[in-house]
TrEMBL record:
It is an enzyme of class 3 (hydrolase). Keywords: Hydrolase, Signal. Its EC number is 3.8.1.5. It comes from Fuerstiella marisgermanici. This is Haloalkane dehalogenase. Gene3D superfamilies: alpha/beta hydrolase. PANTHER family: AB HYDROLASE-1 DOMAIN-CONTAINING PROTEIN, HYDROLASE-RELATED. Residues 58-302 form the AB hydrolase-1 domain.
Length: 330
């Protein structure tokens, strides 16, 4: 009887240890790849951001495109967070950040860059690599050219810093709006803000449309459809005309500071076609170059490939750069 009792106690304790161990294992990934959804005040605005990874690891700042938000990085963030501190904000007027009216906020790329700059300072980012895509390129390149000492590396995905690639049919009505900001010209651009146009951005040029989740355009479109948001987007369509005159300044930054750069570009993109990639080779010496057989939102179809390329690239470039900065004897 005593032996049976001892066996019962032993079994109970063994089961308890097994359950405890299983519970610990189930919660363990949260210490490295858990994505947190946060909001910080910047100049009176709520700026929403996604954050993951150890804060003492190299930081990667992810800057989204139109018409989406940090949501475009929802899969990339946990894929990198075991090794990097990953931060992805939403600009004002996008995603979960404040969306004041055009009367209450100046929707220009200069101002978006100012908000992102203040955001990085508010959350204590002093050194980072930048992933730029679409609208993220003029925002990120403004930030990099102003603070080259803060930038470890660049990752460029379908975002221009050269005139090549901006002369196709897609850009003609937008360029007309730059020249004549009339109501009639603006109304012609409202077709870019419809569900069909948003879906087209995600599906055009992809290898397999069934690989693209409809959650993408169904996430973005209700935000575009918020009252007053079309006026926000028209203001930014107009402000995009301020970017090409800055291309020479950004190119000078590339030549002078030579940031290590990874290009991962969807070559079938009709908005930022592959013609826009090759000029980077003129100015950047430390350049890794990849054209991917997909469309505008390359992460949707080739996210795993891009994550691997980023891990390998930053592992070489950022780690090497930080070793160079260590004092003698370390």
């Amino acid at each position: 009887m005593k032996t049976l009792k001892n066996r019962t106690v032993t079994f109970f304790l063994s089961s308890l240890v097994a359950v405890t161990s299983t519970t610990a294992i189930a919660h363990e990934p949260s210490t490295s790849t858990q994505v947190f959804h946060r909001t910080v005040k910047v100049s009176g605005l709520d700026v929403f951001y996604r954050e993951a990874g150890p804060k003492d690891a190299p930081t990667l700042l992810l800057l989204h495109g139109f018409p989406t938000s940090s949501h475009m990085f929802r899969n990339l963030i946990p894929a990198l967070a075991d090794k990097f501190h990953v931060v992805a904000p939403d600009y004002p007027g996008f995603g979960n950040s404040s969306a004041p009216s055009v009367q209450d906020f100046d929707y220009t790329f200069d101002n978006l860059a100012n908000v992102v700059e203040q955001f990085t300072e508010e959350i204590g980012l002093t050194k980072y690599s930048i992933y730029v895509m679409d609208y993220g390129a003029p925002v990120g390149f403004r930030l990099a050219a102003k603070h080259p000492d803060r930038v470890d590396a660049l990752i460029i995905q379908n975002g221009n810093a050269y005139a090549e690639g901006l002369d196709n049919e897609f850009w003609k009505p937008i360029k007309a709006y730059w020249k004549s900001r009339t109501k009639a010209q603006g109304d012609q651009l409202r077709s870019f803000l419809t569900i069909d146009a948003t879906k087209w951005q995600y599906t055009h040029g992809v290898r397999d449309i069934e690989a693209i989740s409809p959650d993408t355009w169904r996430h973005d479109q209700p935000l575009l459809d918020r009252p007053g948001n079309q006026e926000v987007q028209l203001a930014l369509f107009y402000s995009y005309g301020s970017n090409p005159p800055l291309y020479p300044k950004w190119q000078k930054y590339f030549r002078k500071h030579q940031p290590p750069t990874l290009i991962v570009w969807g070559k079938n993109d009709e908005i930022f076609p592959a013609e826009g990639t090759h000029p980077y080779k003129r100015d950047l010496k430390n350049l890794e170059f990849h054209l991917l057989d997909t469309g505008h939102f390359a992460l949707e179809e080739d996210g795993a490939t891009i994550a691997t390329l980023i891990r390998n690239f930053l592992g070489r470039q950022v780690d090497a750069g930080r070793q160079e900065q260590l004092p003698l004897g370390n």
